[in-house]
Amino acid sequence: MSRFQRWCGIFLFSLAGMTDVWANTHSEPEGIVLDNTRVIYPGSAKAGITFSVTNRTPYVYLLQSRVLPWGSSEPGMTTSGDERQPVAAAEAERSPSTPFIVLPPLARFAPEEKMTLRIRLIKNSLPTDRESIFSLSLKAIPSQHKPLSEGSEGSSQMVLALQNNLKLFYRPEGLTEMSAEQRSAALRFSLQGTQLTMNNPTPYYVTLGNVSVDGGQLELGQQRMLAPFTTASYRVVKGATTVGWRLINDRGEQTPELTQPLR
Question: Which CATH number fits domain 180-261: 1.10.3720.10, 3.40.50.1820, 2.60.40.10, 3.40.50.720?
Answer without folding.
Answer: 2.60.40.10
